[in-house]
């Protein structure tokens, strides 16, 4: 079986269990102590947390020229993170990516945003 086949199978086997756990959890993405994304409806694949578009602070992101094809998932568009602190602007190049509309078994990751390159992700239990 291919590397992607086994990865895909693990993703879908874990998905149902993770969804039950995530119902009482919140994921937060921060960089330089600024919250970039926060939400309770998220997906996890290969240790990356994928946030819904609605849970992302888009005023801190700017689309960059980088795009990449992730086989067999689809095309990802990258974003720079731009944070203003006092008189200084801080940039993190191509530190976020988003898949467009996806079909089939990858649909769960469609229109979701993930982060890397030093963006800190924390997943904590929601106080009920």
Number of helices: 1
Largest sheet: 6 strands, antiparallel
Strand content: over 45%
Q: CATH superfamily name?
A: Domain of unknown function (DUF427)
CATH architecture classification? Beta Complex
Overall shape: it is globular
What does this structure look like?
- With 128 residues, the protein is of the alpha+beta class.
- It has a single domain, classed as Beta Complex (Metal Binding Protein, Guanine Nucleotide Exchange Factor, Chain A).
- The protein contains one helix and nine strands, in the order αβββββββββ.
- The protein has one helix at residues 3-22; strands at residues 25-31, 34-39, 42-45, 48-52, 61-70, 74-85, 88-99, 112-115, 120-125.
- The longest helix has 20 residues, at 3-22.
- It is globular, with a radius of gyration of 15 Å.
- The model has no long low-confidence stretch (mean pLDDT 86).
Short précis:
Pfam families: NTP_transf_9. With 128 residues, the protein is an alpha+beta fold.
